Amino acid sequence: MKGSMNWALKLLPSIIQSMTVLDGLGTGRLGFSAQEANLDYLAAVLNFSELRDSLLAKVSNSVISNKEITSFHSTQSGITASLSDGSELEAALLVVAEGRNSKLAELISPDKTETDYQQIAKTFLVHIPELDNDRAIQIFHETEIFALMPYKKEGVSNTFSVVWSMPKNGLATKSQDELLPELLKFERKLACSIEPITEILSFPLFAHHLKEYCDDGICAIADSAHSIHPLAGQGINLGLADASILAEEIARGFNAGQNIGHISFLKKYELRRKAINGAMLNGVDLLFKIFQQDNPYFRVFRNLGLKTVDNFSYLKKQFIFHASGVYKI
Ligand SMILES: Cc1cc2nc3c(=O)[nH]c(=O)nc-3n(C[C@H](O)[C@H](O)[C@H](O)COP(=O)(O)OP(=O)(O)OC[C@H]3O[C@@H](n4cnc5c(N)ncnc54)[C@H](O)[C@@H]3O)c2cc1C
């Protein structure tokens, strides 16, 4: 999330001031810090339930729960949506934000690009007494990607959230007890002890991108429109930028006294977001492929590349501005 966000929801996030990317098999190292980009912080990590509860409290009067939109059709004034209990809702615009497996988004655009990374992400919380709790770390080790992000947990200090991606048909088939000794290589790399404090959850990793984000009276945002490998921690940033640009286009339509669900406003949102989302998806895909290479010559080149970029302050600032959401259009 962007380094200058106004915390209107009064949540207390964990703040990331610096990030280190390490090649697990070499000496390659790339460091980013908020200070070098003149930002208050690089990123913020929020607890999902706290965020959801705060948002719900803000809009509790206008929320319908436990019902799904099963289908929709266009009318003269906008959209009529049918709900799972048989009732109907009418609106000028229906914004689809129901995640990667959205059926409604598929109705907007059955055409999409898709990548199955053949990887599983294991997520859990750990306690690491030796690490500063404003620092994020990412280690690329052969086909595994091990990411640590500071995470606030009541009663436990120096807690980090782990996202550990691994091959679906390899390491990911191991039981929790067999998997934990595999942490040793990361403990050695970081000269610290990693103590898991929650159970391990698994998520299969895919990416997808809709060919079109909208139709008359309806549009898809965030993971409904595009999903991405979590290695760059960009999923929700792209979604928030979609929401912010869509809000701008809605305001433009509203101020002009126009129907906000008109395809011309929605296409402007699509135009402003699709290329940048596509570029991020392709960039992360390329990064994934570079770090999956096992060739020793390539590894030397990769380690050299990391060290070279580490010395280019301008380039690093551009990375930070893209990743932290300063550039969203
Ligand atoms: C392992 C892993 C690690 C990640 N790490 C990061 C990270 O570090 N940083 C980052 O920015 N991103 C990360 N992401 C990506 C991030 O989680 C997603 O980009 C983000 O959750 C997308 O938000 P969303 O609201 O679009 O979809 P979701 O979070 O999927 O939310 C969609 C919601 O809609 C609800 N829903 C679904 N269908 C319906 C329906 N028909 N009616 C009503 N409700 C419905 C679902 O129950 C869900 O609550 C990670 C993803 C994974 C898998």
Quick structural overview:
32% of the residues lie in helices and 28% in strands.
Your description of this structure?
The chain is of the alpha+beta class and 329 residues long. It has a domain at 92-111 and 211-292: FAD/NAD(P)-binding domain (3-Layer(bba) Sandwich). The chain is built from eight helices and 17 strands. The protein has helices spanning 48-59, 103-108, 176-179, 184-190, 235-255, 263-292, 296-310, 313-323; strands spanning 14-16, 18-23, 29-33, 43-45, 69-74, 79-83, 88-91, 94-96, 112-127, 135-141, 144-150, 159-167, 195-196, 201-210, 214-215, 218-220, 226-227. Strands 2, 3, 9, 10, 11, 12, 13, 14 and 17 form a nine-stranded mixed sheet that branches. The longest helix is centred in the C-terminal third of the chain and has 30 residues, at 263-292. The two termini are 15 Å apart. Mean pLDDT is 89; it is low at 1-5. Residues 68-69, 97-99, 121, 123, 163, 203, 222-224, 230, 233-237, 239 line the site of flavin-adenine dinucleotide.
